[in-house]
């Protein structure tokens, strides 16, 4: 599509109704001052997501994966096809508020030094602000003014095309979690700034605390943390690795007595044991490749 200002990329995995709400919010709260295209990359959902898209949103460009490829690989599939001057990764469990996307594009047009941008992320109540990243940086997310930051969340991550060409896509060694942190590190390393722009707001339903996510999700999330530390913090990595092993051993022991009665406890034990094994053999087996 020629002359596209914004390419919006959503990855879905069994989130049909949230995805429907997100798409509706884009159409209802985005005017005609920008031209945009929408990609949905579906990671083998089992909730009739594709059927819903075909029947209700035929204009959306859909990529159908035969398996769950994770967040990084799925986004990269669409990034390679996107035509926009700006590229927006948007979680399927978000809701775009009044003209947020137009405001973000306008801001980036006026701030050429910014390679990436995040809007204000709001909790489900639409009032309280979510902290993106470490709680130590909570104060910066309460700022009423735009400011430079070192990290923004992948829940709503706007990237300049020139920055994408310079830095490349998401590191596919991450399944999900930590890939946004890695992207931010690479963006800053290549001389671009990252801005937080509270003048645009997006509700993120996924900001609520989550429980145990299942064996694969837990393993991949923790393995991603190991890979991030190994990649960007090599001096800190040995301490982080040992600390993680010790912490997971405590969690494993804490779940052993529940194992005979609860399937969830057995899943946790299996996940924690697998991550401990990965961490112990990190250098020998090169689990980061």
UniProtKB/TrEMBL annotation:
<keyword id="KW-0812">Transmembrane</keyword>
<keyword id="KW-0808">Transferase</keyword>
<dbReference type="Pfam" id="PF00535">
    <property type="entry name" value="Glycos_transf_2"/>
</dbReference>
<dbReference type="GO" id="GO:0016740">
    <property type="term" value="F:transferase activity"/>
</dbReference>
<dbReference type="InterPro" id="IPR001173">
    <property type="entry name" value="Glyco_trans_2-like"/>
</dbReference>
<protein>
    <submittedName>
        <fullName>Glycosyl transferase group 2</fullName>
    </submittedName>
</protein>
<dbReference type="InterPro" id="IPR029044">
    <property type="entry name" value="Nucleotide-diphossugar_trans"/>
</dbReference>
<feature type="domain" description="Glycosyltransferase 2-like">
    <location>
        <begin position="7"/>
        <end position="166"/>
    </location>
</feature>
<feature type="transmembrane region" description="Helical">
    <location>
        <begin position="239"/>
        <end position="257"/>
    </location>
</feature>
<keyword id="KW-1133">Transmembrane helix</keyword>
<keyword id="KW-0472">Membrane</keyword>
């Amino acid at each position: 599509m020629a002359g596209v200002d914004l390419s919006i990329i959503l990855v879905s995995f069994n989130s049909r109704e949230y995805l429907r709400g997100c798409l509706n919010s884009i159409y209802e709260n985005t005017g005609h001052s920008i031209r945009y295209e929408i990609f949905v990359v579906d990671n083998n959902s089992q909730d009739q997501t594709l059927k819903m898209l075909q029947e209700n949103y035929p204009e959306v460009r859909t990529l159908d994966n035969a398996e769950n490829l994770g967040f990084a690989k799925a986004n990269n599939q669409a990034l390679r096809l996107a035509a926009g001057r700006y590229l927006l990764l948007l979680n399927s469990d978000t809701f775009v508020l009044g003209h947020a996307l137009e405001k973000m594009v306008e801001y980036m047009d006026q701030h050429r030094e910014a390679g990436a941008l995040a809007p204000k992320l709001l909790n489900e109540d639409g009032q309280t602000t979510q902290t993106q990243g470490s709680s130590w940086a909570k104060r910066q997310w309460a700022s009423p003014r735009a400011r430079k930051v070192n990290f923004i969340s992948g829940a709503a991550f706007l990237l300049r095309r020139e920055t994408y060409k310079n830095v490349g896509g998401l590191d596919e060694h991450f399944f999900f979690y930590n890939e946004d942190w890695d992207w931010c590190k690479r963006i800053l390393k290549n001389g671009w700034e990252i801005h937080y722009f509270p003048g645009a707001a997006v509700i993120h339903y996924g900001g609520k605390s989550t429980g145990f996510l299942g064996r694969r999700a837990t393993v991949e999330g923790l393995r991603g943390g190991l890979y991030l530390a190994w990649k960007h913090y090599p001096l800190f990595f040995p301490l982080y690795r040992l600390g993680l092993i010790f912490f997971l051993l405590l969690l494993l022991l804490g779940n052993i007595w529940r194992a005979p009665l609860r399937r969830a406890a057995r899943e946790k034990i299996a996940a924690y044991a697998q991550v401990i094994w990965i961490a112990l053999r990190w250098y020998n087996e090169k689990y980061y490749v």
